[in-house]
UniProtKB/TrEMBL annotation:
One GO CC term on file: cytosol
Keywords: Coiled coil, Cytoplasm, DNA-binding
Entry's Gene Ontology molecular function annotations: bent DNA binding; DNA-binding transcription repressor activity; minor groove of adenine-thymine-rich DNA binding; transcription cis-regulatory region binding
Main location: cytoplasm
The protein's name in its UniProt record: DNA-binding protein H-NS
Organism: Sulfurivirga caldicuralii
DNA-binding protein H-NS-like C-terminal domain residues: 81-124
Subcellular location(s) of the protein: Cytoplasm, Nucleoid
SUPFAM superfamilies, A to Z: H-NS histone-like proteins
UniProt key word DNA-binding: yes
DNA-binding found in the keyword field: yes
Coiled-coil features, chain-numbered ranges: 1-35
Amino acid sequence: MNDIEALARQKRAELRRLQRELERLEALKNKRLKVTSPEIKDVARTIQSLAKDHMMETEEVLSLVREAIERYPLKGKRGGTLGRVPPKYRNLDNPAETWSGRGRKPRWVVAALEKGLTLDDLRIRD
C-alpha cells in the first residue's frame, strides 16, 4: 500500500512539473510575433513607404532588406557593433600612446594617476 501511495505522489509531482512546462511553452508560443503584431505591421508599412518613395516594387525593397540582413547581421544584445572610438587621453611621456576612455585603463594611465595627475590632465585638447 505504501508503494502505491509513494508512486501516486511521484506521479502527481511529475504531472505538476509537466503542467508548469506546458504553461511555459504556451506563454512562449503566445509571445511570438505574428503577422498581426503591431511591430510587424510597422515594418510592413515602412517597407511599403520606402518602395513608394524610391519608386520601386515592394519585392525589390524586400530583396534589399534580406541582402542587408545577411550582409550586416545583428551582433549581441545591442544590435550591432560599436566600432572604433576616437582617443580622449594621451600619454604625456609618449604621445603615441592614447586611450579612448573605454575598457580597462592602460598602465600608463594608472601610473599617471598614481603620480597625482588627473584624467583631465591627460585629456586630448583640440
